[in-house]
Design goal:
Strand order of the largest sheet: 7-6-8-5-9
Shape: globular
Strand content: 15-25%
CATH superfamily of the largest domain: Periplasmic binding protein-like II
Distance between the termini: 30 Å
Structural class: alpha/beta
Order of helices and strands: EHEHEHEEEHEHEHEHEHHHHEH
Largest sheet: 5 strands, mixed
Radius of gyration: 19 Å
CATH topology of the largest domain: D-Maltodextrin-Binding Protein, domain 2
Number of strands: 11
CATH architecture of the largest domain: 3-Layer(aba) Sandwich
Number of domains: 2
Helix content: 40-55%
């Protein structure tokens, strides 16, 4: 998709609070060219990027793996955790090890966490559950299942309820098992767009990094907005945002590479994946 004078760049934004530290202070109106912002859940953005309908967007890490032949990664940007992430949660009627061969409902809003659960159930727990896809409704999911996976704000809201289910944080399990943090989402750009619009892409990327930097310096507006939109307390959201990582260090890259290697080993991806970054970034200060 090429930029033209009368056709703005199309950029996706994940409709979850976990990406706010990268996007909250991002103001497309301050850039030199027009951008159309499309705000959707990860699954919708994933499909749009694979179909070439967006120029750049945060996507589920698994979606980048699936479309890696046409996509490049933007450096220094991700949604990651070093242990518990608090928004990638499995709710189960018994401890997860006890339902490892049971029936599990999978949220239809993303891809990374769905396949992370499949990896963990197979290689860590040694199980072989029956999976089915569902809208992110905990009551409906658990009515027909032994366990249910929810992500993002759906998982957060469900975790506040007094439902009596066991709750397993997949970020915590991955860290304890592999020693790596888990990267749930990355920022990707169409190779064709990156090749033809390098200076413009650099401007956008610098603005995203500046937004991340401002969020690190002042989380208060994000916390206030999260309480207003989602509920909860200032203390909860301060901990939540501070616990997330939005850089993309070499260590996080190694953890994501291991995830892709397991996806290929288990047949979740048809070909091996190697991380490939947009390389016109030497003047961007990534901190």
């Amino acid at each position: 998709m090429n930029l033209s004078a009368n056709k703005p760049t199309r950029m996706g934004i994940i409709d979850y609070t976990n990406v706010w530290p990268i996007t909250y202070y991002f103001n497309e109106k301050q850039l030199s060219r027009p951008i159309e912002i499309i705000t959707k859940v990860p699954a919708v953005l994933n499909r749009a990027m694979i179909a070439g309908e967006l120029d750049l967007s945060p996507v589920s890490s698994f979606a980048y793996g699936f479309g890696s032949r046409q996509l490049k990664l933007l450096p220094g940007l991700s949604v990651s955790s070093e242990g518990p992430v608090n928004s990638i949660l499995v709710f189960s009627k018994e401890p997860l090890d006890s339902v490892k061969n049971g029936k599990m409902a999978l949220t239809n809003t993303s891809a990374t966490s769905v396949n992370l659960l499949k990896i963990i159930m197979n290689k860590y727990y040694g199980g072989n559950p029956e999976y089915w896809d569902s809208e992110p409704d905990l009551d409906a999911m658990m009515a027909a299942s032994d366990a249910a996976l929810l992500i993002g704000d759906h998982a957060i809201k469900a975790s506040w309820r007094d439902h009596g289910f066991h709750v397993t944080d997949l970020g915590k399990v991955w860290k304890e098992w592999t020693g790596f943090g888990m990267t749930f989402a990355v920022w990707a750009v169409q190779q064709s767009f990156a090749g033809s619009q390098a200076d413009w892409l650099r401007e956008i990327t610098e603005a995203l990094h500046e937004s991340r930097k401002q969020s690190e310096q002042n989380l208060e507006p994000l916390v206030t907005e999260a309480c207003k939109q989602i509920g909860g307390t200032d203390a909860y959201w301060n901990h939540y945002f501070q616990n997330l990582c939005h850089d993309f260090t070499e260590e996080r890259q190694r953890g994501l590479q291991l995830y892709f290697d397991y996806c290929y080993e288990l047949g979740l991806l048809e070909q091996p994946v190697q991380l490939s970054f947009w390389n016109e970034t030497t003047r961007i200060q990534v901190k």
